[in-house]
Design a protein that fits this description.
- The chain is mostly helical and 411 residues long.
- Helix content is 81%, strand content 0%.
- Helix 10 runs antiparallel to helix 11 and helix 12 packs antiparallel against helix 13.
- The longest helix has 44 residues.
- The radius of gyration is 21 Å and the shape is globular.
Length: 411
Amino acid sequence: MIETPGEIEAALAPQDRRARLRELAMLFLKLGTIAFGGPAAHIAMMEDEVVRRRGWVSHEEFLDMVGACNLIPGPNSTEMAIHIGHRRAGFAGLAVAGACFIVPAVAITIAIAWAYVRFGSMPQVAGALYGIKPVIIAVVVQALWRLWPSAARTRLLIAVTIAATVAALAGFNEIAILFAAGAITIGVAVASDAHGRRDLPAAFIIATPLAMPGARTMTTAAVSVATVAGAAAAPFSLGTMFLIFVKIGAVLFGSGYVLIAFLQADFIDRLHWLTRGQLLDAVAVGQFTPGPVFCTATFIGYLLGKTTGSLVATIGIFLPAFVFVAISGPLLPRLRRSPIAGAFLDGVNAASLALMIAVTWELGREAIVDTTTIVLAVLAAIALIRFRLNSVWLIIAGGIVGAIVSSAPRP
């Protein structure tokens, strides 16, 4: 089995390498243009494209990638794109897939930021989103249905998935849930196989640095102190902004609400470069544009430094994701071969599925709010599961229906 990026690239003829890179570029440019709904929806669309439609990876490999993305900081869906590119075409594929997933959202965000600066407001897209959101819920539910047999294939993993779902809905920290699930499955593996104990130290060496909340807090604090020391002056600086976004991309776990906290602490409370209204508008743009939510940074960069600022901010916040995946990607096949490390990945995968279930539940409560959205969600689910229609067309149709219904005069 080909494992490392060097082996993947060495095994491909030049024409095959170019063909794979073209395939990756076309796929992720498309997904970056139409992938609405946040990381869970993006990952569901990737699963549909690379597992079911193209067969580039198996369900088990896909779940390992999802688990790895949940264990490292940064934007999960972008890291998934980078992992898939790495698996398909080595380091060149890693760069192409990640960049192509990001570029459409960046271009759209820059256009919106230009209009915002010129006209003082954002384009109205609420109507289209009203119809897109219930379709996205159907897309995610379909992906969960397909991933369940691989992630929850034993009684233990079913129990872990259910417990992790309950914990996520109760508000427990996502990283704590992931590592608790991994620890449980390691414990069961060790208890059932005395010979597995010799693998235990290596597994814990890999897991412990990321698992310790105190270590992550100290790392975050250290990076913050370093950034503050180099960015004490109030006048705007591209270099200071770049370092702030590198810090955020390197240490941010959790939801978009955590991103808001980081942005407020640095750009409002400390440097006073933004107003709260501008921050909320930036977060809204990241939410309603397709592609990564981290494109909030692109909008802020444009507000502070026009086009150059937007590009600097984008590179800063996404750069750590490429580095983390380049480091962790080659380890996945090796970890899977170890009984103890494999058990840990099984637990993390089950918990990752649980986090997706919890996010889908929360998003569904916001997206499915009336008869129209119920009908859209049900019809989209039928079209996906029964007729296997491409989710792209359903998202476009949902946006059109939403815009028409929203613009119709109220009785």
